[in-house]
Amino acid sequence: MRLSGGTRVLGIFGDPIAHSLSPRMQNAALAAAGIDAVYVPFHVRPAHLADAVRAIRALPLWGVNLTVPHKEAVLPLLDRVAEPARLIGAVNTVTHEDGCLIGHNTDAPGFLHALAADLNFVPATKKILVLGAGGASRAALVALAQAGAAMIVIANRTLDRARLLCDHFAPFFPGTDFACTSLDNGDLRRAFSGVDLLVNTSAIGLKGESFAPLPWTFLPEAASVYDMVYGRGKTSLQIEAEKQGHRTADGRGMLVAQGEAAFALWTGQRPPSGVMADSILTE
Q1: I need a surface site. Which of 83, 164, 198, 215 has the fewest CB within 10 A?
Q2: What is the pLDDT of residues 165-181, one digit of tens each?
Q3: Which residues are within 8 A (CB) of 190 and not within 5 positions of it... i.e. 6 or more apart?
């Protein structure tokens, strides 16, 4: 990588951030495309998010990604939010256009692409249980409902937060039934009935920690499991699910798909085919 006075800077804001594979895949794509730019991880704690967003203009940065825990908190700090991201209520990509910061969400299409590519799963007419009720969950809910899911159950430690999501999205998607449940083992047993796909959108597993034991015997054998978390190897959720015979995938496929979409927003061109995937999926 050769840096010059004209090198443009992209980045990702998150807490934590050291685990992120985005710098590896974005820098590989920038180099392959011959674009004089670099993509840098920035460890931004929640208390400093507003300062970091102001720095996008001041430095100036070409654009950034947002990851946990900033996807929702960043919205009021931006000049404009694209309609899909506004509906989702979460932003994972910011473009910087002549001093104007515009929020986008590439997680939703990236998620659907990953489900199809990694699990051969189509949400239409299916029952899906989503673990978590944060920014990533909001993107998954919109993507699944737009794709025709028959029922989506949101399971969250704070039941009121899950209930708020159900109440918010139900009017937008009358063809999908929304329900919520706690992470209590007894509640999950009932919620697991008839589920076609279990999705983890929470940050559990990001630091290597495990879920509390899930009632796996109540999840249908044919159900697939998608963990948005990713790491160097299989996540703890994947390991447990595969012990029960479920087909699984982690979040790297989604990371690539959303990253390719973000690259296109920043640069105005698609990244060279396969470069991002090759940079992180060949370990």
Answers
A1: 83
A2: 999 999 999 999 999 99
A3: 181
